[in-house]
Amino acid sequence: MDLFEYQGKQYFARFGIAVSPGGVAQTVDEAVKQAEAARYPVVIKAQVQVGGRGKAGGIRLANNADEVRLHAKNILGMDIKGHVVKRVWVEHASDIAEEYYASFTLDRSAKRHLLMLSAQGGVEIEQVAKVNPTAIVKLHINPIEGLSLDAAKRSVVEAKISERAQAGVAAMLVKLYECFTTGDCDLAEINPLILKPNGEVHALDAKVTLDDNAAFRHPEWDEYRATEVLDAREKMAREKGLQYIGLDGSVGIIANGAGLAMSTLDVVNQVGGKAANFLDIGGGANAEVMTAALDVISSDTKVKSILINIFGGITRGDEVAKGIVEAMKRVDLRAPIVIRLDGTNASEGRAILGAAGIAESQLISRPTMLEAARSAVEIAGKK
Ligand code: GDP
Ligand code: MN
């Protein structure tokens, strides 16, 4: 789950990371109240989950209530790269001496946490990576050992952070790492991390992605759910209790089990296709679940074929087949289905599908995952 900047800053604050005093506002009047509480001058910042807000006019300085009114009125409702601004964050404006970049992510291939640190912050890090890659210092961290203050200090020196900011930035990195690990983040990024003229180090922006798999140990995350931004299909899938992730391709995928769904994605890739989504229906593939899954996938106009890959264990092939036949009566499918049904009661299942009198142009059965993927990719390519 991605947090808004203001939520990210509130999350940072729990781990002792210095942020500016401020408050969130949904109306112009609220913005004025928050500005007064934060003390002038203030910055008014559009709360949208997209970068480059400054350039789009979504970040403004205000010295008094009139200026807050003017800017808050303009920013609220503004469209920034397709994201409509519903809230602004109003915080006490900071004087900036220098802008740095710091983030923690998980480097899956290295099986390590990854610190990225740069003395060139404030701009998009992708840009720094392109133009001046050596300006980004990377440190892999063994998750068992964690990040020591000494290791943080070495990275800070290596990144050529100004001497007077070094101690502050190193201490900040240790706190940010604590937030990343104990706080169960997939991403904890500060850009810019600023040095103020008075020598203080401070997070001016916050980009936090929480690891949804850890939600069970964070009841406090519930409040973030209320403001979570999901696209319509993701919302629909969640309401129906499905594990769904939208992707860019044209083959819709339904599989029972996340492992099988991932393998199906790979096989679709292998035969030259691209998946439109990842959808794991788990163990129970009854008519309700199938209807829900086909509903979600059919609402995606990019989908040109639907590949259903079921390996029955506890899930029985005949149940799945009944579910599909029933679901096809209920859902207005926009693309043909290719099914690979194997495992427990697969032949019974195939018999049910065969006897249902569904046209070949709508439902094709293939004996193996590879053949099914080929057919699905072929159909998707034809359209
Ligand atoms: P983003 O561009 O969407 O990532 O928004 P940021 O929160 O990173 O802000 C963009 C830029 O606005 C920063 O790099 C700063 O240059 C500027 N900015 C934001 N807050 C302040 C502030 O309190 N004081 C000053 N002087 N500039 C600010
Ligand atoms: Mn930023």
Describe the structure in your own words.
It is a single chain. Helix 5 packs across helix 6, helix 10 packs across helix 11 and helix 11 (317-330) runs parallel beside helix 12. The protein starts with a helix and ends with a helix. The protein has helices at 5-14, 28-38, 65-75, 125-131, 149-158, 163-182, 222-225, 232-239, 258-270, 287-298, 317-330, 346-355, 369-382, and strands spanning 22-25, 42-46, 59-62, 79-80, 83-84, 88-92, 98-107, 112-118, 136-141, 185-195, 201-203, 207-210, 243-246, 251-255, 277-280, 305-312, 337-343, 363-365. The mean pLDDT is 94. Strands 7, 8, 9, 10, 11 and 12 form a six-stranded antiparallel beta sheet that branches. A four-stranded antiparallel beta sheet has the order 1-6-2-3, covered by helices on one side. With 383 residues, the chain is α+β, with helices and mostly antiparallel strands. It has three domains: 21-92, 2-Layer Sandwich (Dna Ligase, domain 1), CATH 3.30.1490; 98-221, ATP-grasp fold, B domain (D-amino Acid Aminotransferase, Chain A, domain 1, 2-Layer Sandwich); 232-382, Rossmann fold, CATH 3.40.50.261. The relative contact order is 0.09. It is built from 13 helices and 18 strands. A hairpin with a 2-residue loop joins strand 4 (79-80) and strand 5. The structure holds guanosine-5'-diphosphate (GDP) and manganese (II) ion. Residues 43, 51-54, 59, 93-94, 96, 99, 122, 191-192, 204-205 line the site of guanosine-5'-diphosphate.
